[in-house]
Amino acid sequence: MTPFQPQIPVLPEMTSETHKKRRFPTDGTPLQQIEHRVNPINLDFNGHVNNRTYLSIAMQSADEAFMDAHAIRCLAIHWLKETFLGDTLTCRLNLLPNETDETAYHYLHTIARNDAETAAQVYSEWIPRKEQIDVSVHAPRK
Questions:
Q1: What percent of the chain is helix, strand and coil (3-state, nearest 5)?
Q2: Could you give the CA distance from residue 23 to residue 26 in angstroms, rounded to a whole number?
Q3: Selection from 59, 54, 57 nearest residue 120 by Cα
Q4: pLDDT value at position 3?
Q5: Band of the pLDDT at 117, cuts 50, 70, 90?
Q6: Predicted confidence (pLDDT) per residue in 56-109, tens digit
Q7: What pLDDT shows up at residue 140?
Q8: Residue 35 neighbours by CB under 8 Å, 6+ apart
Q9: How many degrees, rounded to 5, is the angle at CA 72 between CA 63 and CA 55?
Q10: DSSP letter at 68?
Q11: What span, in angstroms and rounded, lies between the C-alpha atoms of 50 and 118?
């Protein structure tokens, strides 16, 4: 068990063949924009940028103080177009409208290629953290 497993549970219904793709909302309030130039460490064995890199880019656009005070309730990534070494990716962070849960924050990170085509989207829901979790200490194995 890793220290992150209790914070991001795997839902079996989300990993089965019967799971339907979730459509992300497109409206929202723009908050921030960052750029990232693709380097060799961002690539998989096929020479494409992978979802882990898209997630890292998305989290770089988020506010550190906010992330320290909140925990992820839901995280989803849509890969849409390939990107390659040397490409400049632009990540736009939008706060989405929240109509269901007053305590949750919903964000959409849209990552676009040089040609303005959307390469990936990262959707996340955050809730206030009840207590600070020390991730530097590994959870005991059972």
A1: 15, 35, 50
A2: 9
A3: 54
A4: 47
A5: very high
A6: 999 999 888 998 899 988 889 999 999 999 999 999 999 998 877 778 999 999
A7: 54
A8: 88, 89, 90, 91
A9: 65
A10: H
A11: 14
Whether this model's pTM surpasses 0.70: yes
- CA–CA dist 43, 46 (Å, integer): 8
Measured distance CA(88)–CA(84) in Å, rounded = 9
In which band, very low, low, confident or very high, does the pLDDT at 2 lie, cut at 50, 70 and 90? very low
pLDDT band at 53 (very low <50, low <70, confident <90, very high): very high
User: What is the b/e burial string over 18-41, where b = at least 16 CB atoms within 10 angstroms of the residue's CB?
Assistant: eeeeeebeeebeeeeebebebeee
Q: What is the DSSP string of 25-44?
A: P---EEEEEEEEE--GGGB-
Measured distance CA(29)–CA(89) in Å, rounded: 20
Token code pair at residue 58: 């998305």
Reported as a pLDDT band with limits 50, 70 and 90, residue 121 is very high
